[in-house]
Specification:
250 residues; alpha/beta; D-Maltodextrin-Binding Protein, domain 2; 2 domains; eleven-stranded mixed β-sheet; two-stranded antiparallel sheet; 8 helices; 31% helix; 26% strand
């Protein structure tokens, strides 16, 4: 692929602006001395910038919904968030490079003992609004109702204090929250795997093909697994299944 053409389409100013979702504690595990985000997601962005010979500017956002919204205001050149149908209306996503299981936590003495019992009339599920798993639940639940809140921490306190029936979340976060509620239970099953992708704005075909190839090469070459190990999230974050490359010779 002609990298010069990709750069002209993606970041003609010579600086790659990468939108980073700061609320995903598995993908952003800390900050550097200057306050810059550190983790798998920032390192993937850095690898892309290095591959293209570009300077990198990390653009932090409070949550994935904010990252997605910024596609309409030219807030970034690439975005590292989960690919979802609603977001795909304004963003072209690569295949996933990593994934996180999403599941349910129930309170002590819950009458919900089977995964199939969750989606029933009268069941109230607390969830972080505009998260990838909120979008999935919104599209797929048929009977249960969702109680949406602003943050992951708030989802737990609302679930606990308002005595809701179920807390939906990413398994690693739920494992931490389970320790704060003795007798609570996390299901072994998952209702979805939140897959993290790299996106660019619509109408950039060369950039989209480049990002797809980059993800393919990052998985086949072991980059993703090495970043997961480097940032201490082995067993919490998994490399995604191998996607197809674009097979582009441009």
């Amino acid at each position: 692929m002609d990298r010069k053409a990709v750069i002209e389409e993606l970041a003609p100013g010579g600086v790659l602006r990468a939108g980073i979702n700061m609320s995903n504690f598995l993908l952003v595990t800390g900050r550097g001395e200057a306050g810059e985000p550190q983790g798998v997601s920032p390192d993937m962005a850095a690898a892309i910038a290095d591959d293209l010979g570009l300077k990198l500017e990390l653009v932090p956002f409070d949550g994935p919904g904010d990252v997605a919204d910024a596609a309409a205001t030219d807030g970034w050149d690439i975005a590292n968030i989960a690919a979802e149908a609603e977001r795909a209306k304004t963003i072209t996503f690569s295949s996933a490079y990593c994934e996180i299981q999403a599941t349910y936590l129930t309170p002590p003495d819950s009458v919900i003992t089977r995964f199939a019992d969750v989606d029933q009339p009268g069941v109230r599920i607390c969830v972080k609004e505009r998260s990838a798993y909120d979008l999935w639940l919104t599209a797929n639940l048929q009977h249960a109702s969702l109680v949406r809140v602003g943050t992951i921490d708030e989802s737990f306190t609302t679930f606990r204090d308002e005595k809701l029936d179920v807390l939906a979340g990413l398994r690693p976060a739920l494992l931490k929250q389970q320790r704060e509620l003795s007798g609570s239970r996390i299901f072994d099953d998952s209702f979805t795997a939140v897959q993290q992708s790299i996106g660019c704005k619509k109408g950039l075909p060369l950039a989209a093909r480049y990002l797809q190839d980059f993800v393919h090469n990052s998985l086949s070459g072991g980059l993703v697994e090495s970043l997961i190990e480097r940032h201490g999230v082995v067993g919490k974050l998994s490399a995604a299944p191998m996607p197809a490359s674009s097979n582009s010779n441009e």
